[in-house]
Amino acid sequence: MPRPLRLIGWFMLILVLMQAPEVVTAIPLSSQLPTASQQLKKATDRHAILVQEYKIEGNSRAELRAQLDQLGPKDSLGANRDAYTEWNIAWSWPFLADSKPNFSQTQSRHSITMILPRWDSANGTDRDLLGQWENYYNALILHELEHVEHAVRNHRDVAEAIRIAAKKNPRLNTKEANKIARDTLAKIRRLDRMLDERTNHGKTQGVNF
Questions:
Q1: What phi and psi values does residue 81 have, to the nearest 5 degrees?
Q2: What are the start-end ranges of the E strands in 147-187?
């Protein structure tokens, strides 16, 4: 009799193992994604972004907020901001032997400057304050990188618009080409305004300190 009991026991163990759910070790999302600073460095290396920092000091949230308001950069409309990304798009074309512009070879390029706050916390700074600053600063960088993407992804549209216009109109002149470029540039800048309107200048994304 003992032998059948052992067989039944093994059979039940096998059933339990077969029915047991697979155990999957979850990897925290934060470890799967690059940090905001890593993303900024990557973007800086790839797109030659000039990053400028202004130093702030303080030992409390109120003191840091006051420094941000006092020392932060101004945007294109003159409003004070905690950070600001300024980009420009330039365009040019070569000239033919008869000094006529060769619009079919128009090229465009971007230049980008990002201004960010820098806070060097002192030893013994409150851990809650450090955590609040880290969350805010990461959100700030990610928001500014969205502005960067507008220039990076769309700057070639300026040259492309001129090339297309020249193909359709062989008599295109410099004044007309520059107007096409400015109109295209205005559409790209509108993306910046739409981003800030949609996110209240990043506040809905965590840019709130």
A1: -135, 155
A2: none
Q: End-to-end CA distance of the chain, in Å?
A: 75
Dig out the tokens for 113 from the structure: 């400057």
pLDDT tens column, 165-178: 999 999 999 999 99
In our burial notation (b when 16+ CB lie closer than 10 A, e otherwise), range 163-173 reads bebbeeeeebe
Residue type for position 40: L
Task: Return d(Cα 170, Cα 4) in angstroms, integer.
Answer: 95
Strand 107-119 versus strand 84-92 pairing type: antiparallel
pLDDT tens-digit map of 74-111: 999 999 999 999 999 999 999 999 899 999 999 999 99
Looking at the predicted structure, is the pLDDT value of residue 33 above 80? Answer: no
67 closest CA partner among 79, 76, 78, 54: 54
Residues in the chain: 209
- How distant, in Å, are the alpha carbons of 91, 96, 103, 163, 165 from that of 100? 16, 5, 9, 15, 16
Q: Whole-angstrom Cα distance, residue 181 to residue 197?
A: 25
pTM, two decimals, is 0.80
Query: Nearest-CA neighbor of 155 among 88, 93, 103?
Result: 88
